[in-house]
Prior knowledge:
By secondary structure, this protein is an all-beta fold. 0% of the residues lie in helices and 49% in strands. The chain is built from no helices and 10 strands. It has strands spanning 3-7, 10-12, 18-25, 34-39, 45-51, 58-60, 68-73, 78-83, 92-97, 106-110. Strand 7 and strand 8 form a beta hairpin.
Amino acid sequence: xxxxxxxxxxxxxxxxxxxxxxxxxxxxxxxxxxxxxxxxxxxxxxxxxxxxxxxxxxxxxxxxxxxxxxxxxxxxxxxxxxxxxxxxxxxxxxxxxxxxxxxxxxxxxxxx
Length: 112
């Protein structure tokens, strides 16, 4: 069964950091570009970051540029999202996705 499982979310104060992880099973992520998306309460899905094959290309949505960093470890079948200088507006459920397959998400809450 193909599956993505996110972890690493939690409650953090503004200015803090979190590192999200996404573990793939049942398929090899090296065959895919990998994407992190998020959904804030009452809002639609927003693409946060994308990493191309072998990490050659990385793209970020403007609000997170310079604060978030996406990476991948194809040998471990893992994708990561390092989030620094977190803001309350980053509060959302975060998902990793291949575009067609998505995990169950991990909640990130930024609040003092």
